[in-house]
Amino acid sequence: MTSAPPVPATPAIRVSNLWHRFGAQIVLRGVSFEVGHGEIFGFIGPNGAGKTTTIRAMATLLEPLAGRIEIDGIDVGIDPERVRRVIGYMPDHAGVYDRITIREYLEFFADAYTIHDMSVVDTVLELTELSKLDDRLVAALSKGMKQRLQIARILLHDPKVLVLDEPASDLDPRARIEVRDLLLELRELGKTIFLSSHILTELSDICTSVGILERGALVAAGPINEIAARLAAQRGNNPAPVASSTLESGAAPSADGNAAYATPGGAALPEQARRRLRLRVLGDAHAVAPLIHGGAGVLSVEPAPGGQLTVFYSGDDRFVADVVRHLVGHGVGVVGVEAERNELERIFLEVTRGELQ
Ligand SMILES: Nc1ncnc2c1ncn2[C@@H]1O[C@H](COP(=O)(O)OP(=O)(O)OP(=O)(O)O)[C@@H](O)[C@H]1O
Ligand SMILES: [Mg+2]
Fold it and tell me: Candidates 53, 56, 218: which one to mutate for ligand 1, based on the most atoms within 8 Å of Cβ?
């Protein structure tokens, strides 16, 4: 029995076979990817990889040598004017006008967008938590506030798709967290967010998908866990060499993390397949550790003061869910669960060769 193929929904962003060169230097080599509606997509790559070039083409500011870009189904090459109404673009190192107030700045841009209802200025001020500062001179703002002002500016015309080039570079940790929270809020409001970064951990923990660009070519794209699973499958076909020793049950991993590990069944496990989960529980972590120890996929458990537990395991996100369910089922108060943050760093190192153009 055959069923009709589903009608493909138009993605929020579709980049197809994008090529570009500056002079003799080819900087984009057939870049293709799609971003679904409501996603936060992280465009990641080292300096000079071609992120800004791709973004400028998406933002209608650069005509690529070849290829096609559609934003919300609109072809950038054919109807850039309409694309500009759909996107909110924040360039890297965007300048702001210094000698006017926040409100004047936003009113100026609302006017430029031919917005007649100035109440949108209040709406974006509130959203970016700048309402109380609205009469402050832009010159007197911190970098983090200026960045939020930039985000406020690109929200004025209520775009569906936000394109942000390095939105958190140069920001201190607090300002970064504020930008991150703001982006999550904007996603809740239904925006699709495309952001670039060369700092892997910067905003990667909020990205639903990533694309990794190196020397103008996309080397991996998709949800982080899917890329990780694909790489793990590839490694399965071509296992990384591992040391012959296997881990004694319950022994602590070596400090440099280079030890070879074994499944409970004794099979050698490549170091890359070892993942780390940090838990915080109420009470004594030493009393809780035996509840986890010996479970399927558990490689080792390290209790520490303050109810901290580090669990090294082999498995996917279901492992994390199972451990939490198991502990809660045994009456343990689980107050913190932090899955390995360095997943993306590992992926990045694995798919890139560290070559710059
Ligand atoms: N206007 C230009 N003229 C000539 N070469 C350029 C121009 N803009 C970018 N390039 C070159 O194109 C390549 C890609 O640059 P691009 O700015 O897209 O990289 P990027 O990934 O955004 O890097 P970064 O992380 O440093 O922002 C680099 O080698 C850069 O030197
Ligand atoms: Mg750039």
Answer: 53
DSSP state of 19: E
Domain locations in the chain as residue ranges: 13-222, 261-349
Dig out the tokens for 335 from the structure: 């107050």
Where are the alpha helices (H) located in the chain, listed in sequence order?
A: 51-58, 80-86, 102-112, 119-127, 143-155, 173-188, 224-237, 285-292, 317-329, 343-351
In this prediction, residue 256 carries a pLDDT of 36
> What tokens does 200 get?
């892997």
For residues 204 and 197, give the distance between their C-alpha atoms in angstroms, rounded to a whole number.
9
DSSP letters, 177-212, are: HHHHHHHHHHHHTT-EEEEEESSTTTSGGG-SEEEE
Spell out the alpha helix ranges (H) of 245-336.
285-292, 317-329
Distance from the CA of 91 to the center of ligand 2, in angstroms?
9
Top-tier CATH class for 13-222: alpha beta
Q: Whose Cα sits closest to atom 25 in ligand 1?
A: 47
Q: Using the mean position of ligand 2's atoms as its centre, give its distance from the Cα of residue 357 in Å.
A: 13
Name all residues whose Cβ lies below 6 A of ligand 1. Answer: 22, 27, 45, 47-53, 198, 357
Q: Which atom of ligand 1 is nearest to the CA of 166?
A: 27
Distance 202 CA to ligand 2 centre (A): 15
Could you tell me the two tokens for 150? 């930039």
pTM of the complete model: 0.73
Span 90-115, pLDDT tens digits = 998 777 788 899 999 999 999 999 99
Distance 48 CA to ligand 2 centre (A): 7
Whether the CB-CB separation of 63 and 77 falls below 8 Å is answered with yes
Q: What would be the CATH architecture of the domain defined by 261-349?
A: 2-Layer Sandwich (3.30)
In the predicted structure, residue 38 carries a pLDDT above the cut 90: yes
pLDDT in tens, 145-180: 999 999 999 999 999 999 999 998 878 888 888 888
